[in-house]
Every structure is written in structure tokens, then in C-alpha cells.
């Protein structure tokens, strides 16, 4: 597999991006194509001593920062001749020169560039970012978590189709259980969007199990949970904040306690390490932007080299599984009613 990687994506670029790329090439044997300013990225790549590893660098004179938005972002996203590291990386996928693109940069910018330069899959109206949440029984794919704050009920069906194929083809879940995120488990609960989407999902060929509250998500009641980007983003950020609060508070209490309590803290240290690993975004690395006509994975700006390496692994797994073609076939079989917006410039 050939994975294009934005070397200017993370908050501390290019060190985590380059280190993760070299580690991924060494561990998995995939070719990693770094895209970034050769004056900045080149020396860091040389310091990693890649030797004969399948890692190479493509020069990009510009980058997109976290502040890019609005008209300025749209104009850069639609440039005929790509200059930014994101646009060049996405074009490699569009032109068949890379199997997937990975970035740890601005989520909105990555989504806009993917939309304008790749367009949407036939039958899909909106893209959706689909991270994996840890649960008591393994994991749950949740989408959308921030790309689309306002959507139509039919879009949730599209999200469910794409999320199911991702869970099945890449995550290895047979016949994934699909649920709607709501404020109650009972049918009829939820806002207008949830209530209107329910009969559409019930009529689909999906393994739809109804509504779930956040607590059921973490209990492992579903394999795929769909929601709008506004609610999904709040769910994600609240979960991250609560997880950090709990682990930080436990650590503070142990360190400020009498010696015998601190001794007990040492005894539970291995268990705490397992909990931190469970909640560590570096384990997954990046989430797929489902719906665009090409494999795009977006990670967190705070990503370290381990997260970048994991992101390359997940992107490669999706490419090897033929996830795009599987989603395309499933959408065609289901007969989505959305009018696709090609978006191609």
C-alpha cells in the first residue's frame, strides 16, 4: 500500500509526523509518501536515517493552519494547481498515486479539501468523521463527530451504511448492530431528526437496534452509533474531558495521600496503565472521513509519533480491505435517496 501523509499536520510538525511515518514504514512495509516543505521536513527525515525504507518526500510550498476557515479556506481547497500539503496529498489519492491520505491537521480544512478535490461517493450527500470509541465489549464506531452540525434524516441512514461497512470490513465485526444516539432508549424519544430517521433505519437492510443513550454506547450495546455532527462533537469532547478528569483526580489523590495509600497506588499502577491505553487516541491514530470518493483519515493535532504510526496502519488496513468499493456497493444496493454533490473542481 502507498499512504500519503501530511508532514505539516500535527501541532508539533514535522517531528511526530516524520517519526511516525518512518516507524510505520519499518513496522508494516507500506510506502509512506510525506508531503511538506522540503526545507523543514527534509532535515528531520534525514535525522531518522530511513535508509532503504519505503519513505519519500514530495515538496509542498504551503500548509493549512488551524486558523484557516471560510472563503480563504474554500479558495485554497479549490485551487486548480495544489500548493498545500493537504491538497497535494489528496490529489495523490485522486490520481491513483496513493491508496489513502492521512493528516493530523485542521479537521475542517481536511474535510473541505477532500470534498472539493475528491467529491462524494455516488448516493452519499454528506461526509462523516467516524472515530472508534472504547466500550466494555470492545469498541463502537460513532459518526458524525463534527463535520455536519445540521443534517437531514436520510443522512443518518447514509452514515449508518458507511459506518457498518467500516466496522465490518476494517474492524472485523459481522453484521454490526446500528443505533441512534438519543436522550432515551424508547422509540419516539429524541429530537425531530432522531424521530424522523427511525422509520428510515427500520426499513433499511441494516441491523438497526433502535436508540441508545451515551451510557449504552460505553456499555457496548451497539457497534455503530449515528448522530449529527453537533451532538457527536459534544459527545466526543465530553467523553474526553470526563476521562481526563477521572484519571487526573485518581493520580492526584494517590500522590497526596499517606505513604501506605501511595503503596496501594503502586499496586494498581498496571491496571491504571491499561485504562490509559484504552482511552489513548494514539492507539487508533486517526478516524476515516467516510463518504468522500477516496480514503482520507484525520487525526488529532496533539498526535505523537505513535499516533501517526497507528494512523498509517489503520489507513493501510482500510485500503487493503477495499473499504471504498464495499461502501460504494452497499450504498448502490440499498438505493440511497440522496442527490450526491460531486464537489469536484
Attribute tags:
345 residues; alpha/beta; Isopropylmalate Dehydrogenase; 7-stranded mixed β-sheet; 5-stranded mixed β-sheet; 13 helices; 12 strands; 47% helix; disordered C terminus
Structure description:
This protein is of the alpha/beta class and 345 residues long. It folds into two domains: 193 residues, 3-Layer(aba) Sandwich (Isopropylmalate Dehydrogenase); 149 residues, Isopropylmalate Dehydrogenase. The chain has 13 helices and twelve strands. A seven-stranded mixed beta sheet has the order 3-2-1-4-12-11-5, with helices on both faces. A five-stranded mixed beta sheet has the order 6-7-10-8-9. Strand 11 and strand 12 form a beta hairpin. Helix 3 packs across helix 5, helix 4 runs parallel beside helix 5 and helix 6 crosses helix 13. The longest helix is centred in the last third of the chain and has 27 residues. The relative contact order is 0.18.
List the topology elements:
Elements: E1 2-6, H1 15-28, E2 31-36, H2 38-47, E3 55-59, H3 70-77, H4 85-94, E4 100-103, H5 107-118, E5 128-129, E6 132-135, E7 138-143, H6 153-169, E8 177-181, H7 192-202, E9 207-212, H8 214-219, E10 224-226, H9 229-255, H10 259-267, H11 269-279, E11 286-290, E12 296-299, H12 305-320, H13 323-334
Parallel strand pairs: 1-2, 1-4, 2-3, 4-12, 7-10, 8-9, 8-10
Antiparallel strand pairs: 5-11, 6-7, 11-12
Amino acid at each position: 500500500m502507498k499512504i500519503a501523509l501530511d508532514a505539516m499536520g500535527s501541532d508539533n510538525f514535522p517531528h511526530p509526523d516524520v517519526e511516525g511515518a518512518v516507524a510505520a514504514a519499518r513496522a508494516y512495509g507500506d510506502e509512506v509518501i510525506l508531503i511538506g516543505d522540503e526545507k523543514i521536513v527534509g532535515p528531520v527525515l534525514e535525522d531518522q536515517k530511513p535508509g532503504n525504507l519505503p519513505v519519500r518526500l514530495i515538496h509542498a510550498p504551503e500548509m493549512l493552519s488551524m486558523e484557516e476557515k471560510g472563503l480563504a479556506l474554500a479558495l485554497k481547497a479549490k485551487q486548480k494547481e495544489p500548493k498545500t500539503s493537504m491538497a497535494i496529498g489528496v490529489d495523490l489519492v485522486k490520481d491513483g498515486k496513493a491508496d489513502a491520505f492521512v493528516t493530523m491537521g485542521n479537521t475542517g480544512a481536511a474535510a473541505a479539501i477532500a470534498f472539493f478535490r475528491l467529491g462524494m461517493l455516488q448516493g452519499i450527500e454528506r461526509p462523516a468523521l467516524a472515530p472508534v470509541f472504547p466500550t466494555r465489549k470492545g469498541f463502537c464506531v460513532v459518526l458524525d463527530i463534527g463535520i455536519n452540525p445540521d443534517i437531514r434524516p436520510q443522512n443518518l441512514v447514509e452514515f449508518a451504511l458507511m459506518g457498518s461497512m467500516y466496522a465490518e470490513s476494517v474492524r472485523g465485526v459481522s453484521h454490526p448492530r446500528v443505533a441512534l444516539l438519543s436522550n432515551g432508549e424508547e422509540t419516539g424519544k429524541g429530537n425531530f431528526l432522531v424521530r424522523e430517521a427511525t422509520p428510515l433505519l427500520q426499513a433499511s437492510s441494516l441491523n438497526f437496534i433502535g436508540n441508545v443513550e451515551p451510557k449504552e454506547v460505553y456499555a457496548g450495546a451497539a457497534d455503530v452509533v449515528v448522530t449529527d455532527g453537533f451532538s457527536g462533537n459534544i459527545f466526543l469532547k465530553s467523553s474526553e474531558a470526563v476521562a481526563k478528569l477521572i484519571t487526573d483526580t485518581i493520580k492526584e489523590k494517590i500522590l497526596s495521600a499517606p505513604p501506605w495509600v501511595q503503596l496501594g497506588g503502586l499496586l494498581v499502577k498496571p491496571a491504571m496503565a491499561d485504562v490509559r491505553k484504552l482511552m489513548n487516541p494514539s492507539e487508533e491514530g486517526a478516524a476515516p472521513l467516510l463518504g468522500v470518493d477516496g480514503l482520507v483519515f484525520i487525526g488529532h493535532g496533539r498526535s505523537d509519533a505513535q499516533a501517526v504510526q497507528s494512523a498509517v496502519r489503520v489507513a493501510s488496513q482500510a485500503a487493503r480491505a477495499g473499504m471504498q468499493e464495499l461502501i460504494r456497493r452497499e450504498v448502490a444496493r440499498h438505493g440511497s435517496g440522496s442527490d450526491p454533490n460531486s464537489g469536484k473542481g
